[in-house]
Amino acid sequence: MAVYTDVTEPQLAEFLDRYDLGSLSSYKGIAEGVENSNFLLRTTGGTYILTLYEKRVNRGDLPFFVGLMEHLAGRGLSCPLPVHDRDGNALGELSGRPAAIFTFLDGMWTRRPSPEHCRAVGVALARMHESARDFPLTRPNGLAPPDWRPLYESCAGRADEVEPGLSAEIEAELADFEANWPGHLPKGVIHADLFPDNVFFLAGELSGLIDFYFACNDLLAYDLAITLSAWCFEQDGSYNVTKGRALIAGYASVRPLDEAEYENLPMLCRGAAMRFMLTRLYDWLNVPDDSFVTKKDPREYLKKLRFHRGVREASEYGLEKAAVTKGMA
Ligand SMILES: Nc1ncnc2c1ncn2[C@@H]1O[C@H](COP(=O)(O)OP(=O)(O)O)[C@@H](O)[C@H]1O
Ligand SMILES: N[C@@H](CCOP(=O)(O)O)C(=O)O
């Protein structure tokens, strides 16, 4: 469920008066999504997405997110383009919430990613990284390794309610991240949440990326690790090396990794799994069951964390160093 704020027809019609989009034909809440309220908006000028930003999104970050989408779309990456009102503003206010209108992207996200999907996602992620190189705004990652311990501590020692022994396991992992995180690797603007529900396909081809609301400046290879962890595991929790190989090869075909990035992949993947396990754990323990926020199972990411902990060398993800660092994969 992702319509947290109601919008009345007169409110929306008044909001639309500020744009050159024609008049309101219809609008309807979109159930998918977690953080914000989204509406499918039809006007006499076309079809759009209306987003109302909810409490968990910091208003001060909105110019970064909206500016990034505009920048990437301008570089030819397929992603929602913010629509400006007649005064040039991409951000307005509707029903007491910051609000923006975006172009509609055709396509659907895939529930069953294939190796071909994974390769296309790897290519798109690397293109995003390259296209954002000259984006002038910056935003620190609010969910970087130094934030993981406070997030864990805000779960008030209740991790063992999810699985006995989990608190001690998290403690040991956090100590390792604090001592060994490879913070020196190349940085840039990362998507930071490129899960299957944020990538659209149309007729088998990748048609666009959405949901840039965790985007920030951080390690580029960490974004690859997040994406690999989200796309290359099966329902039973097993790693699919064919998908992993395809995703990494797709990425490296646009942006080859450097040796240190490649060698640190197991640590980066463990970190990616920890980050999503912790945010899910926090919601699992703290968000009331009748709340609108969709809770996701932290144990899915606990399994992935354990898999990554067992990986001794990056080649176990499917590709040898020479292939990935030379971009010849
Ligand atoms: N530009 C767009 N074009 C088409 N559909 C979109 C677009 N933006 C969002 N959506 C739809 O809205 C849903 C929720 O969007 P998303 O950005 O993932 O929300 P949240 O930030 O709340 O997770 C998506 O799954 C998709 O169905
Ligand atoms: N991808 C995250 C949750 C964030 O959801 P999104 O709809 O904003 O992508 C997770 O799976 O934990």
Automatic annotation (TrEMBL):
Keywords: Amino-acid biosynthesis, ATP-binding, Kinase, Nucleotide-binding, Threonine biosynthesis, Transferase. InterPro entries: Aminoglycoside_PTrfase, Homoserine_kinase_II, Kinase-like_dom_sf, Pseudomonas-type_ThrB. Belongs to the pseudomonas-type ThrB family. It holds the Pfam family APH. This is Homoserine kinase. It is an enzyme of class 2 (transferase). Its EC number is 2.7.1.39. It catalyses: L-homoserine + ATP = O-phospho-L-homoserine + ADP + H(+). The lineage of its organism: Bacteria, Pseudomonadati, Pseudomonadota, Alphaproteobacteria, Hyphomicrobiales. Residues 27-257 form the Aminoglycoside phosphotransferase domain. It comes from Jiella pacifica. Pathway: Amino-acid biosynthesis; L-threonine biosynthesis; L-threonine from L-aspartate: step 4/5. GO terms for molecular function: ATP binding; homoserine kinase activity.
